[in-house]
Write a structure and sequence with these properties.
One of its GO terms (cellular component) is cytoplasm. The protein is α/β, with parallel strands linked by helices. It is built from 3 helices and 6 strands. It has a single domain, classed as Leucine-rich repeat, LRR (right-handed beta-alpha superhelix) (Alpha-Beta Horseshoe), CATH 3.80.10.10. It is elongated and about 55 Å long. The mean pLDDT is 89.
Length: 174
């Protein structure tokens, strides 16, 4: 028996679930939305995500909210870092192992809300502090507001746990 594995490309043939407001479409039939909710789909990778977003959305560059919670993702795919207007990213309930995966998200200038709880990385020591040090602009993490005390704790943790990168000075020999 062959088990069906959903993929991002399956979205092209799916009708979006109806929400409180009707979905607006452009003249070309593409969605005029700034969010993609792909939660609870057993996705294990984001192959072709950019192409699918371009097929479905009139302005994929305006994507501000992506919900990929409760899938089977094992890493943070670099494709997510190409959406510079992304402000909300839900990745909770996946299978992301390495805390270092968070580093990829540092390039997103507008990211303000992030969820990662329910991933194996949550068990790593200093999980919250590491994320807050790495993504200093986020204001909500795992559905909790980030306080001044959180920032202070994260900074102290960073000084105690993360070795600064040494600046190598090239010696000029005469």
């Amino acid at each position: 028996m062959v088990e069906f594995q959903p993929s991002v490309t399956d979205l092209v043939n799916e009708e979006p679930r109806t929400g409180l407001r009707p979905l607006k479409r452009s003249k070309s039939g593409k969605s005029l939305t700034q969010s993609l909710w792909l939660n609870n789909n057993v996705l294990n990778d984001l192959r072709d995500f950019n192409q699918v977003a371009s097929q479905l959305l009139e302005h994929p560059e305006n994507l501000a909210w992506i919900d990929l919670s409760f899938n089977d993702l094992t890493s943070i795919d670099p494709v997510l870092t190409t959406f510079f207007n992304l402000s909300v990213l839900y990745l909770h309930g996946n299978s992301i192992q390495r805390l270092g995966e968070v580093n990829k998200l540092a390039v997103l200038p507008r990211l303000r809300s992030l969820t990662l709880h329910g991933n194996p990385m949550e068990e790593e020591k200093g999980y919250r502090q590491y994320v807050l040090c790495t993504l200093s602009r986020i204001t909500t993490f795992d559905f909790s507001g980030v306080t001044k005390a959180d920032r202070t704790t994260a900074e102290v943790w960073k000084r105690m746990n993360i070795k600064p990168k040494k600046a190598w000075i090239k010696q000029n020999t005469l």
